[in-house]
Each structure stands twice: as structure tokens, then as C-alpha cells.
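new request in #modeling-help
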Amino acid sequence: MLGGEIMEKLDRQQVMKDPIYGYIHVDLVVIKKAIDTSIFQRLRRVRQLSGVQMVFHGAEHSRFSHSLGAYEIAYRFLTIPDLKNALSEREQALFLGAALLHDLGHGAYSHAFEDIFHTNHEHIGARLILEHAELRKVLDQVDNTFAEDVSGIIRKNGKFPIIEALTSSQLDVDRLDYLERDAYFTGAAYGHIDLDRLMRVMHVKNGKIVFRQSGVHAIENYLISRYHMYWQVYYHPVSRAYEIVLEKIYLRLKDLCINDYRFEGDIEPLKAMIKNPNDLENYIKIDDFYMNGLIASFLNTDDDILRKLSDDFMNRNIWQYIDDDASTKEEIAEIKQQFSQLEQKYFTADRKIANLTYSEDDLANQIHILLPDGTISTLQAESRIVRGLILTGIRTDQKFFYRREK
Amino acid sequence: MLGGEIMEKLDRQQVMKDPIYGYIHVDLVVIKKAIDTSIFQRLRRVRQLSGVQMVFHGAEHSRFSHSLGAYEIAYRFLTIPDLKNALSEREQALFLGAALLHDLGHGAYSHAFEDIFHTNHEHIGARLILEHAELRKVLDQVDNTFAEDVSGIIRKNGKFPIIEALTSSQLDVDRLDYLERDAYFTGAAYGHIDLDRLMRVMHVKNGKIVFRQSGVHAIENYLISRYHMYWQVYYHPVSRAYEIVLEKIYLRLKDLCINDYRFEGDIEPLKAMIKNPNDLENYIKIDDFYMNGLIASFLNTDDDILRKLSDDFMNRNIWQYIDDDASTKEEIAEIKQQFSQLEQKYFTADRKIANLTYSEDDLANQIHILLPDGTISTLQAESRIVRGLILTGIRTDQKFFYRREK
Amino acid sequence: MLGGEIMEKLDRQQVMKDPIYGYIHVDLVVIKKAIDTSIFQRLRRVRQLSGVQMVFHGAEHSRFSHSLGAYEIAYRFLTIPDLKNALSEREQALFLGAALLHDLGHGAYSHAFEDIFHTNHEHIGARLILEHAELRKVLDQVDNTFAEDVSGIIRKNGKFPIIEALTSSQLDVDRLDYLERDAYFTGAAYGHIDLDRLMRVMHVKNGKIVFRQSGVHAIENYLISRYHMYWQVYYHPVSRAYEIVLEKIYLRLKDLCINDYRFEGDIEPLKAMIKNPNDLENYIKIDDFYMNGLIASFLNTDDDILRKLSDDFMNRNIWQYIDDDASTKEEIAEIKQQFSQLEQKYFTADRKIANLTYSEDDLANQIHILLPDGTISTLQAESRIVRGLILTGIRTDQKFFYRREK
Amino acid sequence: MLGGEIMEKLDRQQVMKDPIYGYIHVDLVVIKKAIDTSIFQRLRRVRQLSGVQMVFHGAEHSRFSHSLGAYEIAYRFLTIPDLKNALSEREQALFLGAALLHDLGHGAYSHAFEDIFHTNHEHIGARLILEHAELRKVLDQVDNTFAEDVSGIIRKNGKFPIIEALTSSQLDVDRLDYLERDAYFTGAAYGHIDLDRLMRVMHVKNGKIVFRQSGVHAIENYLISRYHMYWQVYYHPVSRAYEIVLEKIYLRLKDLCINDYRFEGDIEPLKAMIKNPNDLENYIKIDDFYMNGLIASFLNTDDDILRKLSDDFMNRNIWQYIDDDASTKEEIAEIKQQFSQLEQKYFTADRKIANLTYSEDDLANQIHILLPDGTISTLQAESRIVRGLILTGIRTDQKFFYRREK
């Protein structure tokens, strides 16, 4: 053992109480230590859902909880005989580590942030695993390529295809946790997934994750749950309206930064991002605590636009919206007229959502079905519900959002 | 109708999805508008449990959710025939309003805050109901004494004894919601309460809330749940350790303010509180967004003590603790020796918890039992479990907490 | 009021604890008395699912529980403003009565029984409502056409179209209860229905039950749940195999009766049914208690076939089965060869199942969607999931079942 | 290996869907085969709760389900490190077998039956394990003392003290399953037990089952749940009234048998029991199917008393009851006067219930608490709730029950 304590175990299993799974179970020293790093604890300060909580008040949970949840599903997956056999002890730890750290790169209101600052939370997460000194030290205790391998899985470099498939695909530990967790915290009736059943029918065949045919209904149920969670929860127009306020705040902040506006709060980390979106040290400061405190400091700022947007965010002034289709072109044009050119940039937005419940073309992400005779088929060949979903095509929704005074 | 639209109803009932009750139901215009005020929306920025979430990661919910929950229980209570009959339409609205607004005065990490700044969230809440212009305007639309009456219920001025009993007593809408809600979000197995049963046996007799004898077991269950939630969740030593860090941060901030320390972030609201703890305008700025942002800004501050405490808070450096009893006096003295006089003030704490599951002496808060013959008895007379709890006396726990370097 | 006490209420609402809904609520005297009749109590002796419990051991619940459940959903439906307004007080009671009594005509293992004895539980139920003296007396206390009207709703005579639609259609109180209840008792993960949501979007428009567009996802979820419950639970091949044993027992009993076989137990009620399938007095004796006791008495009977079938039933000797399709014709023929002509009649069966998740052709049973502009659309027009299900057509499953010796 | 295939495993783990635990897991061939025996399948025909279902209509589950549940808890217990280490592979199988078969000796309405026929279901169960040929053959495949050892555990012969303690004590797999299961099926809010927590704190020390101090609250919760289940569910007076009807039916049947009454149905198995309560062959015929069918056959019998009792049973004619205490002596005497001497024997009963929630005197059954310093304490020393329960003594309830005509 050159690199150190390979797969060192805790003297006694540690658990954390979790409302979804009962307990999160930790056996490995490396996982325990990774959880305790400041960079992972930082995820307590990044909420899982941003705009959604404005509609579903229960959805106040963080990416910390979700990351532990994704890890716990990976932990349970490792009781599946085929999977346990297919992965070496080190690969099992890689899987656990990748599940735990898959969202490490998320910051405050990432989706809005990424649109404006052109960052990518997956790339950043993969870099943090390599470059965050405290975490790196923990991972290096396994061996000196462990961090690189975990990071590679997040980046999907193809070195560990099974682990990559389980960490990020059409059916992975990430989605399995967030659908269930978001359903639990929102109170939505739809996100429940039969995890036990999925695990009982999961196998490894020819280096691929496959599901026995008798589990097709559990997969169908998962896809329908996902469909409903997306359209009822994640794409809720009020939630989208709120996300747009955040995006516009970022946009205005960026523009003001460039113009050397004198801000009330500590704007340095954001300024740093404009100069260099790869500045990790500043990036990780931009968590919800930071952004929320910053926006609060703008409630009396001089800039009209920033002040109004900050007030919208703080005091839940939800923007209006109407469908953008042939019948509303005129109405939208009229609404726009009510805004000045400058206001149009910051106070209006036109956004289209398109969602495919199951993609048959995305070959890399296919869900594979193991037939009783040992051959491998596709999900759409075995499920009439999935065929039905494919037949009905992509569902889209385009809306025009605009600010209104309270 | 001088004052305006008494008990004006919404055109259509509005609902908010809630993970505990399915829906929060709103019928009255005044409730809808009160929820929409910025001072109520502010509760989204104040978490329900502070230290607890460091042990139970799911417990990230806000006082906003809990306030809606307490309101919903009040709403359901109003389907109890006796209660509906005992309260006029206006009193019913008062009950709903008081339930909704009972926690309005909470700020960031209130318990720690109150210890240092000598504020009282109930008094502040009662004042906000009267003095917050936006909210006051909403309440005045009912009539010009409505705000005063809601505020009076929070202050327990005795004018509406039934509503006061239902809002704050040994068995009230506040406790009924928070036990259930905190159990749901922590994942604790203990907080479940048989609300339907309690409601079915609740009556009003001689101007008092009473419970039929056949519901004694449901009350017993509630008290045992409360007992377990307190000792397993709220009093968890790690949670208490974390609360102490917050208290010490407040203490250091106060001391530094007095000494005119140059802070990184916007310290004005806290400074204002030192001068005048009754300064509502500044008080309401001190929510979690503000405090969390502020503490984040201290990670590189010059003051050693503030920097270390801020780091403890941000990066979950949990303090150590040992029982403080006859056998540990010496050990505690030794630990103290390791700290300078100044450090002892900020880096150590000795705290005692004492909890009585059911108090027979607190006459005002007695739970009354209605016997089949129509007479009213006490809970302890009718429940051997409650008698047992009383017989075994007060449970206490004293611990010494101290900082350790990571 | 000629007939007596129209809609007389109980002095105090009575409740029965129910594992699904918490409580079954009874306000009306007529409902309370109907539940207490011997003919309704008889449903305690008829299980809801026959073969299914051989696969899902938890599914041991009776039609009594289900009937109370369907009633409770009707009771809750009557809190929907539109529905309450659309129905007179008497019609509301008719709805409650029809929901409660809709399964009154079920006997032991009805599906197998009906195939052999050519009875129809709905016709029998409708007749029992009119002809069972004890029950009739209860219903007559409302008025002298109440029994006739309840019976007419069960027979779907078209007099109360809204009540008929709510009692028996593609989305009715019967299905809503049994899917949820069967899921609860089997432990299946699929049957959960968002009843609250369905109720919130249900309206009456132009004399029809319609659902607001915003509830389409809840209907989709219900249809998918139904689809999965059918294919995973109700159509489970082991369950079907067990139903066939029951059918063959009935067949053999009938044949032996005709040949004047000397039975051990009391065969009279069955003999009576052969002579006259309309003999209600004997029909209602044939509950599970009777049939199970009777079959137990055949474990040592002389007739080989009856004895073997009874043993299969009592001791869970599950028959074998294979798919019946082009590829298995030969294999099936070979299996048949192993049985004598007589045995083929009693020890083999070929059964085909065909199920349409949602029928667009069945105009009477359409689910109607109310658009925001007030016009009424169809479910398939508004739901891509339903369109997908229709596009993929009828799902069938044909199997050949045969006895094997233990 | 003389005896055969020690602890032979199934090729693939088999599972049965269970509403409480998700799945019942079977790994061992001997367990699989034991479940398939006719004597175990017979438990499908014996309901878990007899009178209780007359109050809680959902409680229609059988001893088959409960036996599988108790087995599953044992299965899960075997993942507890201490327990796994303390038991050899064969002992683990003994534990599983004893958990599965612990209720094998139950017959129709056992409690009533035992009172009249002086049988004992535990003795009978222990004998069936040895003497039932089909089952014995299965158990002998492990080795030729396996059956004897399982039987000895049921009889508590002291050979395997840990397994005995886990199978039958104050906290065992039997109680853990039935409290949870009966709560689930009745819908009672009280029976929930934190099984995961109990398992996490369970250890084996000095050959005893002990629980870490940090689990005391979970044990308290279990005892309070048990207390509430007993008084709210099992001791419900309507349920007790119904049990008395059954007891009186057995009593009358016995008396009539002795007098050579000509019965309608097949009375032979009962007659055999009068002659010889040890006649296993006849005993096992007396399941619910048999008894229910038999009682149904008495609805038109000539004997007045038997006919009336049978009608009470079939058509839910619940007997009246009043408290039997100092104040009601006279009233009870008057009620008795309304019955003839003969009727008093069959139509009245005086019954007292006494229940101790936790017995400190029952040394063999103590729950042991493992203190942090490694010493073993008692539950009452560590739990103030348990001390409270002990202090308040035995709770009793005495009632006089009597028949009334409908």
C-alpha cells in the first residue's frame, strides 16, 4: 500500500438521521472526513431549489442534504450483488465519493449565475475536488490518484463507465435522490420512487447497468414521477418568474461592476468572477449566505433597477407572465412598450422550456432492459408507456415574464 | 360596519401546498393580505431551528412554514362545533390572525440574540402587529381595533381567554405544529401527534377548552412526543454547542461595537440594537440572511476571537462538552485553565437545562378533562402516565462546553 | 314529507377508524342503520381480492372495508362546492347510499362464481337493495322511493346521471377507494392517488363532472397508478392461477350437483343457485365463510377431482403457467396430452387478459376537462400521457394454466 | 455433516411484498420450504385479531402475515454485528425458524378456545414442529435435532437463552411485529416503533441482550406504544364483548356435544377436542374457515342459545356492558335478574383486565441497559418514564357484559 490507508474503515459505523432514508450510513474514513471538510459543509449554505420555494414553502432544503442523499443511495446500491462484484473495493469508494461530491461546484442560485457569469458547476466541482487543499488532503489519504479519479467521474472522462452511469445518466443516484427529496419537502404527491424494487432488478451485464424486465413498471413509474415533478414543481411559472429576478440581479450587478458602481456590501467576490470565472477562491465564497446578505444590502441602494430587483427578491414581488404564442404576440408587444429600453433589459424576459421525458436518441443514456433469455433490450421496446411518451414528442412552454410594481 | 370589510372572503379559497397538512387553506382576504406583507414574508429568512440543523441536516425549514402550519391548525380547529359556536366570526378571524402572526417577532437565532441583546420576540411581535405600517393597514381593513386585539392575544392580555389558550398554552396550535413539523424535517420518529383525535374530543365548557376523557391517551401521546422531541432533538448537546457559538458571536459583536471596532460588513443594525433594543426598524433587518452574510464577512477579520467564532459557525467546528456534575468539577477546572481569562468569556460556557414534561402547578395552563358526567377534571387525575411523569420530577442536564481548535 | 324523516341526522357524528382515511364519518341516520343491517355486515365475510392475497399476503381485507371507503370518498366529495350545489339534500343521501351499497351483491369469489353460475353481482346488489326486508325498511324511512332510486343508480338507469358518473365511471368513488386501499394492503408502491387535488379541481358544468385543466396531471397519475395496479397486482399470474382453481372448484361442484353427488358439507345453497340463479335467499348465504368451510370439508371427499382442487385451494398448490403465443403452441399441446379428457376440463385453462388504460371510444365514460375559457375538452386532448397510452393500444396477455401435483 | 444440507441457501434470494417492511426476505432453503408447508399456510386461515376487527374494520389480517413479519424482524436483527457474532450459522437459522413458527399452534379464536377447551397454543405449536410430518421432514433436512431445538425455543427450555429472549420477552420480534402490524391495519396512531433505532443500540453482553443508554427513549416509546395499543385497541370493550360471544359459542358447543346434540355442520373436530385436547390432527382442522362455516350453519339450529349466539356473531349483535365497580353492583344484579339461570351462563359474563406496562419484578424479562462505562443497568434505573409507569401501578378494568336482543 503505497498511497496510504486504502479504504480505511471507521471503528464504528456512523449515521446521520435523514427524513427520507432514516439514516445516512458512513463506514469509510475518507467519506467521514470528506463530509467534515469546509468545502462540503459549504453546501449547507446553498439551497437545492431556488425559485421553487416561493411556490412550495416547504422546499427550503440545501444541496448538503441532497448530496448526503445521493451518497446514501450509492451506499445502498453497493448491496446489489452484481454491482458489488463488478466494482473493486477502491471503485466502490470512488462511487461513494463521486455521489457525495457530485454537486460540490454549485453556488448561490447556480442556474441564474451560470447564465450570466458563464461558469459551469460541474467543471468547478471537478476542479474543487482536485484543487481544494483541505479536501484534496483527505482524498489523497486513499491514494494519490483517488482525487483525480473522483474528479474524472464528475467530468465523465469515461474511465469508470459503470460509476459514471450510476452517477449521471437517465437513472442515477442524483436524480433518484432529488426527485424523492424534493417531493418530500415540497409535499408534492408525485415524486415517490420504488427504490427497493429498482435495486432488486438492477444487474451488471456486459459492463452495463441493466434492469430485469420485471422491473419495467418501476422504471415507468420513475419516469412519470420525473415528468410530473418537472411540470408541476420545477417548471412552475411562479418559480420560473422568481428565477428570472435572480438572473436579472446578477445581470445588473455585472453591468454595474463593469461601470464601477459603489456598492453597499462586499462585492469583491463577484467582481473577481467577472475578471476570471475560473477564480475558485472567490467562487466558493458566493453561497446563499453571501448572496442573500448582499441583496439585502441593496434595498436602499441608489441604482433604481438594482434596488427594485432586490426588493422583488426580498419581498416576494412575483413578476407577471403570459403564454408567448401566436395569439399573444400583440399583447406582449404592448406590455414591452410600457418599459423603457433599459427597463426591457432588466424587467422583462422571454423564456422557453422544452422537456423530453425519455430520449430514445440519446444512446449513451439509454436505460437497458435484461430479458429473461439473457439478451439486452431497450426500455422503449419493453414499455408501452415509454413508447407513448416518445410518440407524443417534446413538450414545450414559452412564456413572457415582466415586472410589475406592487 | 365602520372599519371596513368585516371578514371579507376571497372569491375562491386559496391553498398552498404543505408537506405536513397537504394544503394550507386561506378563505379570508385579511389572512391572504397579511401573508403577502413584507414583514410576514421576512419569516422565510428566519429558520425555525438553529443549532438543531447541525445534527439533523433535514431541519432547514423556516418560521414562515411553521407560522403557516400553526395557522392551518387554527383553521382546522374552527371546524370543531363547540369552538365554532363559542367564537364570533370576528373572533375566529382573530384566532387565525394570532396563529399566523404569533412568531412575527422572531429574528436571526433569537434565543442567542435575546440573551445578549435583552430583547423579547413576543413583545416585538406584538408591537410589529401594531406598528408595521404595511401590516397594520391590512389589519385595519377589518376594523380599527383588530390589530390591537391580535396584538393583545400575543401579549396575553386576557381579553380573549379561549383564543389565548389555543394560541399559547400546554397544548396549542404553536406546539402542535412545531412538534409535527420539526419531526417531519428532522426525520425524528417521535413527534407524531394524533391531531384528528385531539380535535374530535375538544370541547368548550364554562369558557374553557376541555378534552373528553376518551381522548386522554391522545394527550398522553402528545406529551410523550414532546418529551422525546425535547430531549432527543432540541436539547441535543451538539445542537446546544452550536447555539453557544452563536451566542458568543453576538456577545463578541456587542463588545466590539462598544469598542468601536471597524467591521467588514454592515454592522449598523446591530449597533442600533445596542443603543435601543426597541428600535423595530433595525430589528427586522436582523434576519438569517443578514446575520449569515455578516458572519461570513468576518472569516478574515482582524479580531482573533470573532474570526475564530465565525469560522466555528461557518465550518461546523462543533465545541466539545462534558457533563458538569460532582465527578467532573476537577476536569472542568483543568479545561478552563487552558484558556486565558478573555478566552474563557468567549470560548467556554456552562449551561443547565431543566424540563418538566407536565406541570401540575401551572394552574393557568392546566389541560382540562371533561368527564362523561359533565364535570371537569384535571389531566393528572385522569392519566396515570401524566401522574408518573409528575412523580418523577424535573429532568435536568448540565454541561460544560468549550472550544477546541480543529 | 310522506315517507318519514328525510335526511334525519345523528345526534352526534359517528366515526369508524380507517387506516386509509383516518376516519369514516357518518352523519345520517339512514347510513348508520344501513351499515348495521345484516346484509351489509355480511360484506365482512367477502374478501375484496381473492387470488391476489396468495401473492400479496397483506391483501386480506374485505368488501366491507372497501364499501365504507367508497362511502367516505363520496362523503368527502360532498364538500366540493359545485357538487354540493348540484345535488339536493336527498340526492346527496342517494349518492352516499349508492356508494355504500354498490358492492352489496358480491358473494364468495364472485368473478369465478359468475362465470360458472351466470349471476351478476350488480344486478343482485340492485335487487337486494329493493328486496332485503331489513335493509328496505331502513331505506324506506327516508321515503318510499329512496330504495328504488339507490337501486336505480347501481343499475345505471340514467335517472341521476351525476351520481351514476361518480359511482361508476372511469373515475369514481369505487375505483378511487379500491386502488388506494388495495395498494395499502398489498404494499404495492403504485396505487397512491392525489385525492385532495382531484377534489380541488372537480366541478359540475352542464350537468357533467369536469376537472379543471390544472388537475390533468393528477388524473394522469391516477390512470398510471391504475395501469400499474392492474398489471402488477390484479393480473399477477399467480393470482390468476389461483382464481382458476376457484373457478374449477365451482365448475366441478356444479357438475357433481347435477349428478347428485353426496357432498360432505351443506351444499344446499349452491344447489339452489343451479336451479335458480335469482334465488337471493340462498345467494347471500354463499359468502367466504360458507365457501371456505365447504371447500375444507372436501379434503377427504371421494371425488378425485374435487378433492385435488380443494387441496390446491387450501394448501396453496399454485398451478403452472406459460405464455400462450405462436412459439408455445406445441408445448401447450404436449402439456395437454398429459391430462385425460376429463382432467383437461378441470385441470387446465387458457385465459386472455386485455386492458385498455384509457378508452377514448367509450363516450359515456369520458373524463371531461374544463378549460380556463370555460369550454369543455376531453382528457386525451389535454394530456400527452393519455394520448401516448391510447396510441400504444390495448395490452393483452394470454396464458395457459395447468395443474401440477405437489 | 450427517443430517444433510446445513444452512443451504436459495440460488437467489426470494422476497414477498409486505406492506410494513417492503419485503420479507428469504435466503435459506429451510425457511422457504417451511413457509410452503400446509401447516404454515394454514395460518392464512387464522386471523390475528378476532374481536378487534369488529371495532377496527381494517384489522382483517392473519397470523400468516404476522408470522412472516416476526420472521423478517429476526432476519433484520441478524444484521446487528453483536448478534451475528454471538450466534453460529445454525443458531441464526434456529432464530429465524423460531420467529417464523412461534404462532404455529394458534387456531380459530384461540383465546376463547383455550378458555373452554383447556388447550395451549404454545404447547401445541411446539408439538406441531416436532410431529407434523411435512414440516418435520423440512426441518430434518438441516439436521436431526433442528426441529427439537426450534421446538425447545418455543417451549422456552432454556437451551438457547439469547434466541428465547429475542423470540419471547418484554421486547421481542413477536411484539415488535404485532404492535406495528396491528397499528397499520387498524389505523391506530400509536403503534409505531423505531425499529431501526432499537437495532442500532442493541448489543450482546455477558450472554444477554442489552441496549445502549442512548436508545432508552426508543424503548420508552415502544412501551408507551404498547400501553396505548392495549388500552385503545386490544382492550376496547366492544372487542371484548365480541370475544365473549365467541367464548360462549365454544361453551355452548361443548355442552351440547356432551349431550349429543345433532348439529347441522361437521362437528367432529370439536368433539375430538373434548375427548382429547392433545389430538393434533383434529386441532389443526379448527381454523377460522372451519369455525366460521360451522357457526354459519347454526343460524337455523334448534337450540335457542346456540342459534342466538351464532346470530350475534354473524350479524354483529354486540353485547352491552357496564363497569363493574362498587357503584354498579345493584344495577348488575338487576340485569342478571332479567336472565334465567341457564341464560346467565351463556348470555352474561364478568371480566377483569389488569395490565402492567412494565414489570420490574419479572427478573427474567428485564430490559437491560448498557451504560457508557460498560456496566449493565436496568431500564427502570435509566428511564424516568418507566419509573413513572411502575410507580402508578397496575391498571385494571372490570366490566359486566350481557346479551341484548336486537
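bot summary: Chain B has a mean pLDDT of 93.
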